[in-house]
């Protein structure tokens, strides 16, 4: 590639963080309650707003929500990128290993079968933490099984299929549980599946943040092996890459990123699938040195954008985040399928 | 119904015609048809719904004609039932029920207190999810085997139900599709849909005792029972609403970023207003729930005096653990937090949703006791409790 291309990319990597910053500020400024920009700046710089509620709204509600959007956008997009590269499949996403189906299973067991288990959860209230623990336990259990099986198989395609199989198996259990649940229980479960960025308070954010940072750090350290994977596993092996070790680290990074976000925010769809494609198209490269940071920033941008839309600025009501991401994600995926030839090119296939 | 199995064509044509005649008929024609029925029993005790707007009844010579204009939210088509004395020939064009009914199956716990007050629990032969029932008489019936467990509310055990062969099934639905109930109808057992949950006022819901009474010819009893409840309710209401200082109140909790707040015209909104409180979403004229963002609720309710209907959280600690931000409300600091979980049974069934529907006056008493304790010094909270 010519240096001109690199400069172009460099420029883009400067522009993207600026867009992230602008959208971040917009996300904090826009919401159901109208707060003038002057007060927002006052509050953010440690001052007081005109109304005492405003500082709580900015600092306790919008700031954690916007930060969650940034973390979730980055985490899901990197997970998706890693899975697409590992499996050399444009339709892979962060959840192909069964993370979200495992999390759904955990939550479904608590919410739908909670009464049957002994009413413990119904009696003590549906604590947000219980849902988080249930989602974490569920996704870890499914991932553990997938990895256990993966130790016995050589190629990544087999792993992909096994992940999908576990996904449908857990899906079946969830529908069975739904079948035997009351409408009210199903509603609580459905609300969880809608996904949400606004459900996190600071104490939850403090838990999510380090996990996402570790996950991203692992992904960054994997840039070279990821590039090698694009050439195919045999070729990567001939380059001296320890396939199994790299694969395991990719799985660990993805599980940390997608698993933690799903546990705290519910299964947020499409971002992980669509953003890596946007990255490839915008930068017309498959080099992870460029693609990885690009994906992080685009993920943040899209997630912040979706959050702004889901808050329906000016109205008092909110939309579920999943509806917005899917509405935005679906056309992107359709476009990718229409341009399949070029996508295949990006995967070195 | 006299359908011969041999001819599929005739059968399907029959059903198509049946469907057309069921949905195509207008009110007038139905009445005309039934007036030609041979019976001339005059129903002397008549009821007129005063608060309830989700059912209508017309009396005629030898029949009662009942309409449910909106069986579920957004229903395009109303439902019509013809109630006739036994021995009357029934027209095919409308669901006909021979009254007084001898046995029945209900699917909602809200039907149970009405039956109890009308002293007709003995007619109940089957109920789904009996574990969720709070009523003692029904629980006794289940224990003795007089009331059969029918499985889950949304997945009725149709075979067991058909085996019971009740005169009528009382059900409710949130949408048009319910395969199980369709199968019951096809087997010749009339299914009556009730829509008391769509009423906008607590008295409107309680008045559905009159609807149930139609099927037992117990209008007189229903009328006096309801009038007693109504009097108590209106008395309490006039005492509470006369108080000048009305505390502010809001309800519910946040579900993953969305806070479902009852609209100002919902029955909960009306209940709170009748109890002499200033419901913070009273000006919103919706009868359903509003999906609000957490910040909207916080902005309007952070100074509210009372916070009610806090899900199933039993202590302040549980509540604040679930989300730190709940601590920011003034009601949290002052501890004016209430839920209606006193009368939850071991299976999670809540009497508030059962007896509370038929006795809105008791709920109102609880609410007044919460907002204006000095007005009812002797009342002990029945459904509601303060979070510890």
List the helices and strands and how they pair.
The complex is a heterodimer of chains A (349) and B (388).
Chain A (H helix, E strand, L loop, with lengths): L2 H27 L7 H8 L7 H36 L11 H14 L1 H4 L2 H5 L3 H23 L5 H24 L3 H11 L8 H20 L1 H8 L2 H6 L4 H23 L5 H13 L4 H23 L10 H18 L1 H7 L3
Chain B lengths: L7 H17 L2 H9 L20 E5 L2 E6 L10 E7 L9 E5 L4 E3 L4 H7 L6 E4 L8 H9 L3 E2 L1 E2 L2 E2 L1 H7 L3 E4 L7 H8 L4 E3 L8 H5 L1 H7 L4 H24 L5 E4 L2 E2 L2 E5 L4 H8 L3 E2 L9 E5 H8 L4 E3 L7 H7 L7 H5 L3 E2 L15 H4 L1 H12 L13 E2 L2
Parallel strand pairs in B: 3-4, 5-6, 5-10, 6-7, 10-11, 12-15, 12-17
Antiparallel strand pairs in B: 1-2, 2-3, 8-9, 13-14, 14-16, 18-19
Helix pairs in contact in B: 3-8, 8-9, 9-15
Low-pLDDT stretches of chain B: 1-6, 17-38
> What is the average per-residue confidence, as pLDDT of chain A, rounded to a whole number?
81
SSE topology string of chain A:
HHHHHHHHHHHHHHHHH
Tell how many strands the DSSP assignment of chain B holds. 19
Q: What's the alpha carbon Rg of chain A, rounded to whole Å?
A: 21 Å
Give the structural class of chain B.
Answer: alpha/beta
Helix content of chain A: over 70%
Portion of residues in beta strands of chain B equals: 15-25%
User: Which oligomeric state applies?
Assistant: heterodimer
Please report the two chains with the greatest interface, counting residues with C-beta closer than 8 angstroms to the partner's C-beta. Answer: A-B, 43 and 37 residues
Beta content of chain A = under 5%
Strand elements of chain A, count: 0
Question: Widest sheet of chain B: strand order?
Answer: 7-6-5-10-11
**Distance between the ends of chain A:** 19 Å
